[in-house]
Amino acid sequence: MPGPVVSQFIEAFPLDAARVLERADPGPAAQILSELPSSAAAAVLRAALPDAAARMLARMPADAAAGPVSQLPVDLAAPLLLRLGRAERGALMKALPARASARLSMALRFSPRSVGSLIDPDIVTVRPETSIGEAVELARRAPKSLRKYLYVLDEDQRLAGVVDVRDCLLQNAARPMREVQRAEPVALRAGAGLRQASLMEAWERFDILPATDRRGVFLGVVRRTALLRAIAESGVPALNDDLGDLALDLAELYWRTAYFFLAGPAKDGRRG
Known about the structure:
51% of the residues lie in helices and 10% in strands. Helix 1 crosses helix 2.
């Protein structure tokens, strides 16, 4: 187990620790997190890029992962669990305290007729200060996660910008992503209905769009082909889609209200 000095350093400088562990093999990185106090491991998971954090989390024993995950705000923990395989996610949910498990279950609840049901979470993400050279290396190490774009997240995992991968190849490798990102990117709301999402004008320019929760936390991407296929397979007449979207909005309001009462006030002033 890391000594108290190492644990204190990691908890005091979680971003620096996260950057080191992101570049390490997920197995050894997960072992280090498993041996840290829950507060220190939670600080690292919170600071790490979500795709890297999820890879480490997937390698941790469920009992060891439950401690730090239960200390994360729900809006940051939910995207991590969304990136886990079904077996890993199920084991972790069972290991969590009942209250934390219930809150995460609500956060991960998506209607089959909502954008959330189509999200692909296995996507490369970077920070605003990440250099283009580092971003390209991250993409090369995770080719299955690489699509057409790199998604830039702020310190709270909210979507801050999007960078076309092709643009990276034409830029100085030392430039930070914040200088080349397209700010204020168009994003889908995970709780939105399928027809509502299909009417966005951005589909005229893009075949992939990012999806976020109601706080702007990045969850993954949705492809236009998947959206159109889901609408075609839903079997719902077009004239009833407005009513279906209204029902989804009411359902989201219900779960948001239930989540509010279950979660209670957050210690740091944030909900979750």
